[in-house]
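Materials and Methods. Structural model of 30S ribosomal protein S15. The 114-residue sequence of 30S ribosomal protein S15 from Modicella reniformis was retrieved and submitted for structure prediction as follows.
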Amino acid sequence: IAELDRRLTALENGDINEITFMNSKEASRAFRRFKGDGGSPEVQAAIMTVRIHNMHNHIQKHKKDKHNYRRLRILIHKRQAILKYLKKAAPERYHVCLDRLGLDPRVIEDEIVI
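The predicted structure was written out as tokens:
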């Protein structure tokens, strides 16, 4: 019975909303600076990165979805603004955050063209 419950509630059986929620929660847990931290720039950038990856995958499948394409561009620019703020406020945390997110500094400093 326990094995059946585990398989029924496993993440691979979840829908995209559950998977996105769990990925966002895991990103928040990985980037928070203290327990309950949900507003620091690192956490916000990590959650936005998860959302950007999911939206990018969606747009790869649905190329004519112009609404979500625009939402993706807005989300990328919001992440860019948060990381620019972090670079100005705490440069050492900025570089650590970029390394952990796997982003190139050019993504933040240059104009983004999709």
